[in-house]
Amino acid sequence: MVRSTILIVVARHEHKPHKRIAARSATILLWGSLGDSYEFENIMKIYGIDFTSAPSKNKVIACVEARLEADVLSIQKFYRFIDFPSFMDFLTRSPVWIAGVDFPLGQPRKLIENLQWGKTWAEYVERVGQMSKQEFVETLNQYRQDRPVGDREHLRQTDKFAGAISPMKVYGVPVGKMFFEGAPRMLAAGFSILPCHPTNDPRSVIEIYPALISKNIIGKLSYKSDDKRKQTSEMQFLRQEIINQVRSPICKSKYGFVVEIDQQVTCECVSDASGDTLDAVLAAIQAASASQQPNYGIPENCDHLEGWICA
Known about the structure:
The protein is an alpha/beta fold. It has a single domain, classed as Nucleotidyltransferase, domain 5, CATH 3.30.420. Strands 1, 2, 3, 4, 5, 6, 7 and 8 form an eight-stranded mixed β-sheet that branches. A hairpin with a 2-residue loop joins strand 3 and strand 4. 36% of the residues lie in helices and 15% in strands. It has eleven helices and eight strands. The protein has helices at 84-92, 109-114, 121-129, 133-145, 157-162, 175-188, 211-218, 233-246, 249-255, 263-271, 276-291; strands at 28-31, 43-50, 61-69, 72-81, 97-101, 192-193, 203-207, 258-261. Helix 3 crosses helix 6 and helix 8 (233-246) packs antiparallel against helix 10.
């Protein structure tokens, strides 16, 4: 059986013929060439994407490209997007893929029901997509205002299981804003969103959480910072240690495949103090792992309104 699949973390599209894509230098900072879609027997094409709610030249959407063939995950190239149009254009040019996105695809059921946003994932995500970012943030702020301490930012079932923060959070690590920017775009593009909004589209999106890999290797130590004043040589050492570990036999025993990383990608993972490139690599590994599990590791009894982190 021929399989040509992309897993995008990010997570985070129309059918178009396979063709070479010219990079737009004004909007895409590209390392490696975006070539023809791979279509070989038993080969799965994978993208690992580290998402941001406000892409720019200083804070990009980072993407790595990989191929999973038999028991080898080969991470070969990396790309950087400085705006949403170029990112979405990149996704729409590939006709078949699975995307693992590093942002919450859903919100807590308690929030959705209390705000009466809708009965289905598509309904409330479409409603959010009609808001401005300011309206979305103000809606969550007002919701939290009169609630008791400890009940202001809810967790989804999957957040509790994975140890993730509330997808309602719009300050600090603003995953709520990432949801606002990411989920409506994924819905509008027509993707199959698992498990929230499955369709017959051959492009499927799953939510992942790269921090689960890094925590297994270095615990709670910090290996990245967007603040240049807080970037240290120790963090660089930890990034190298994470790379060393995922390329070791430990990874194969855990995930069932060997990880091979191109030297240029490796150097970028270590030198990129923001951690974006490394997180994209971890996203690709986690997405590849999910792709090998029945139903991507999503339990049958999960809440489809909230979504699920595939770990």
